Amino acid sequence: MYSKFTEIDLNSIDDERGKLFSFESMKNIPFELKRVYILTSSNQGYSRGFHAHKKLKQLIFCPTGSCDFVVEDLSKKKTIHLNSPNKGLLIEGVVWREMHNISSDCSIVVFADEYYDEDDYIRDYNDFLKILGERNEKK
Ligand code: TYD
After folding, report:
1. Which residues are CB-contacts of 71 (< 8 A; sequence separation ≥ 6)?
2. Domain-by-domain residue ranges, the chain?
3. Nearest to residue 38, comparing CAs of 28, 23, 26, 27?
4. Residues with Cβ within 8 Å of residue 85, at least 6 apart in sequence
5. What is the pLDDT of residues 1-45, one digit of tens each?
6. The domain 4-138 belongs to what CATH superfamily?
7. How far is the CA of 81 from the centre of ligand 1 (A)?
């Protein structure tokens, strides 16, 4: 089963004017891209996420600002501080994620391999643990 998160370095084209990021499906995005969504204009004090997906693959980065991504897969749980546009997070499959400490200038860009589908969401943490447990037993 897919349940994996990976921190990745995102290369930018830098010069005296600043940074340029280029993303290409099946090249530096390691899947066929179907959707991009962006979280921005965050109201302070709110966290987001609190779900996993059954199948979705996502590449996430913060071109501006910072936030803490708490991610948990089959084998580990980690808080990843996304505070540089060159830091990326690849999430594949059943990974619980929460976004905390989202700065007011934070933009979170998410590339995804599927269209929005509420049926792919696991929104209950106990269901997430149960699904991981069940799938783990079948490995
Ligand atoms: P949700 O996934 O709950 O946001 P977050 O995980 O960041 O807390 O999505 C919030 C709302 O936006 C929810 O009603 C579903 C809708 N939505 C779409 O319509 N399309 C999308 O691509 C996404 C990600 C969400």
Report:
1. 5, 77, 78, 80, 89, 91, 95, 96, 97
2. 4-138
3. 23
4. 10, 12, 19, 21, 61, 62, 63, 64
5. 678 999 999 999 999 999 999 999 999 999 999 999 999 999 999
6. Jelly Rolls (2.60.120.10)
7. 22
Neighbours of 42 (CB within 10 A): 19
pLDDT single digits (tens) 82-100: 999 999 999 999 999 999 9
Pocket-testing residue among 35, 48, 56, 128, ligand 1, by greatest number of atoms within 8 A of Cβ:
48
Tokens 């929005």 -> residue: 116
Q: Phi and psi of 127, rounded to 5°?
A: -65, -40
By the 8 A CB rule, do 47 and 100 touch?
yes
Phi first, then psi: what are they for 100, rounded to 5°?
A: -125, 170
Q: What is the pTM of this model?
A: 0.94
